[in-house]
Amino acid sequence: MEQEREKNYLYDVVIVGGGPAGLSAAIYMARARYRVLLMEKEKIGGQITITSEIVNYPGVERTSGKELTHSMKEQAQAFGAEFVMAEVLDMDLDQDIKVLHTTAGEYKALGVVLATGANPRKLGFKGEKEFQGRGVAYCATCDGEFFTGMEVFVIGGGFAAVEEGIFLTRYARKVTLVVRGDDFTCARTVADQVKKEDKIEVKFNTEILEAGGEHMVSYARFRNNRTGEEWTHEAGENGGFGIFVFAGYVPNTAWISGKLVCDEQGYLVTDSSQKTSAEGVYGAGDVCIKNLRQVVTAVSDGAVAATSLEKHVSSIHEKLGIPALEQGEADTKRLEGEMTGGGRTLGEGSRGDGARGEDTRGEDTRGEDTRAEDGNGFLSAQIRQQLSGLFPKFQEKAVITAELDDSPLAGEMSGFLGELEGLTDRIICKREYISREEKERREAGGELFPAFRLGRQDGREGNILFHGVPGGHEFNSFIVALYNMAGPGQPLDEGLRQRLSSISKDINVKVMVSLSCTMCPEVVMAAQRAASLSGHVTAEMVNLMHYPDLKKKYNIMSVPCMVINGSQVYFGKKSLEEVTGLLEGN
User: Fold this and answer.
1) Contact 78, 26 (CB under 8 A)
2) What domains lie within the chain, and their CATH numbers?
3) CB 220 within 8 A of CB 212
4) Most buried residue, 26, 277, 332, 465, by CB count within 10 Å?
């Protein structure tokens, strides 16, 4: 049994990171008939998925980051690449067979491609950390709506700053771009779009020094780098304003720490074949030192890394006498254009143990794609088809209890439940109508309504709740929560499983989200995973749009916002490891 498990967890190549570089490497390695596993801790596609328009990718006149990377993923899967959602915690890279320790268990590989990308850089100005989530933000798509009718400052002069600044004109009454240099650093065609925006003002040769206030940002100090003159902006009638920081990126290599050679900024040092300082370990994309950080160069890096790594993997097979590893099933008909269906069904990726069919998070089932084609329903035909492939895998029946009041939101939630009811017998749907008196009594005890309460048929748990229709980016969160409740659930590192199972104090976790937020699902799913393993943890997803009192109570100007036991407030993305640590601290 142990030998079989070792075989299932051994891959020719493990690719860490699901952005364009990682997807490109997966396509090339899988097409060469190697057994390939791509690991992604958050969402397939990476940060480019928030880019609404790409017009400089050769051969593709116009597309979005989401569409482009979704196509890449489908192509990699069609060649037989496997996918698993997991975070790599540590790596042993010194031996011929590399070992990756992840939140989904231990994996082994003959070669590794690191395509972990880079994260938005924080500037370190006074007040930046203290007011994150209360005026200081890093994602316009996630947080723009919180600043409707307010003034907003965008810090940065690159492509991201310009694009996000233009996006923010949808909400803000005025947007000021604060550029440290004397010009933008992005393409002129992009910068020229700013001139067409009446709401945008640009201040060149300017940097931010400080942000401050009481409950949210109400003043900020700036300095003109040429004259040395300092000036202060103070909030007007709205009592606050926003500061969005888009000032470059920091490579995601802190977790590697000493295992590979990096430059002073933390970028991986690679040679012309993308090889790092370790044998059998290659880098690709924005995590590496490079002159141009664009999707086209990321894809190139992935292809170069993969083709270079082929020789190394073949040599290890020969050296250790390892027979060819069984590759995931390739879908050659799809590649030849003979199939008309749209992608693998939800749950048809890799379970992570060598078997097919357990990755429920990788599919692009978010946002507008979940809506019915006629606009009158919640679930499209494609989503219904994907769900039909997942529900039979449930080991037990899951129960969704809709606790409904007389609000319009409750009506929407009841309609959503109605669409789920007829899809499978593996989910039992119930409705409980809450009277005004009962609602007031239970709200006094901290409960929120309306709610979907997720549990098991035997009555256990019921400690995962959704307050709002789980559409947009939270649709996968909802489906994954059901999957974890009904079993077998997502693979998980045994150490994390034991830590969560040993929690003995009752803890309530509310994750405030917006359905457009790209960073929220990771926190929601981490809290839900904790609740699925510990009856002492209650995890609630709250669509903040419907609960303005909570926004006011906790001074929330950014999501995700996680509130533990009604008092401890945390902003920003959190992995399952981080959430576990916070829960253990209570």
Assistant:
1) no
2) 2-118+253-335 (3.50.50.60), 136-247 (3.50.50.60), 367-584 (3.40.30.80)
3) yes
4) 26
Cα 121 to the center of its chain, rounded Å: 17
Q: Give residue-wise pLDDT tens across range 98-122.
A: 999 998 889 999 999 999 999 888 9
| Alpha-helix residue ranges (DSSP H) falling in 135-180 | 140-143, 159-168
Give residue 354's pLDDT.
31
Catalytic residue, candidates 90, 94, 96, 143: 143
Lowest mean pLDDT among 90-94, 198-202, 539-543, 573-577: 573-577
Closest to 486 measured CA to CA, from 450, 457, 443? 457
Helix (H), strand (E), coil (C) string for 31-79: HCCCCEEEEECCCCCHHHHHCCCECCECCECCECHHHHHHHHHHHHHHC
Instruction: Choose, from 92, 94, 96, 139, the residue flagged as catalytic.
Output: 139
pLDDT tens by residue, 157-172: 998 899 999 999 999 9
Positions of E strands within 159-253: 174-178, 200-203, 206-213, 217-224, 230-234, 242-245, 249-251
Cβ distance 383 to 435 under 8 Å? no
Exposure string over 241-263, b if 16+ CB within 10 A, otherwise e: bbbbbbbbbebbbeebeebbebe
405 is annotated as an active-site residue: no
Contacts of 212 (CB under 8 A, 6+ apart): 126, 127, 131, 218, 219, 220
Q: Is the pLDDT of residue 554 over 60?
A: yes
Phi, psi values for residue 376, rounded to 5°: -100, -10
288 belongs to the catalytic site:
no
The first and second tokens of residue 41, run together, are: 């801790």
Among candidate residues 12, 90, 94, 142, the one labeled active-site is 142
Mean pLDDT of the chain, nearest integer: 88
Distance CA 571, CA 523 (A): 10
- H helices of 283-380, in order, are 295-320, 332-335
Note the pLDDT of residue 323.
Answer: 95
Q: What is the mean pLDDT of residues 272-277?
A: 98
Q: Tell me the three state secondary structure of residue 214.
A: coil
